[in-house]
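Recall the central idea of this unit: under ordinary conditions, the amino acid sequence of a chain determines the structure it adopts. In this exercise we apply that idea directly, starting from the sequence alone.
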Amino acid sequence: MFPEYRTPDFGVPVGFLLASDGNFWITEDNEGFSMGDIVKVSPLDGTLLHTEATFSPSGATGAFPWALIQAKDGTFWGTTLAYGAASSGHFGAGVIFQLNAGLPPR
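Accordingly, the structure predicted from this sequence is:
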C-alpha cells in the first residue's frame, strides 16, 4: 500500500516527479487557500518534508503550478496556468519557470 499524502492547506496534487534526491516533488493547486506550491514529500511514508516554492498572482512566476520536470543538471522546469509577468495592460496566462533547489544532477 502507498502512503497517504496530505498538506496542511489541502492542496490538490497535479504534477508528480521522483527527483534525483530520491524524494517526490509535487506541484499543487491550492485554489481557495493559496495559488499553488511545490512540495517535497518522502517516498517512504508520505511525510511533507519541505515546501520549496509558493505561487501568487502578483509574482513573476504566476499561479497554479502544473507541469514539473527535472533537467540533467538537477534544476526543475515547470509551467503555471495563470498570471505571471505580462506587459502593461495585459493579463499573464501562465509562464515557464526554472527552480534551482540545489539537487544533484540526474
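The radius of gyration is 14 Å.
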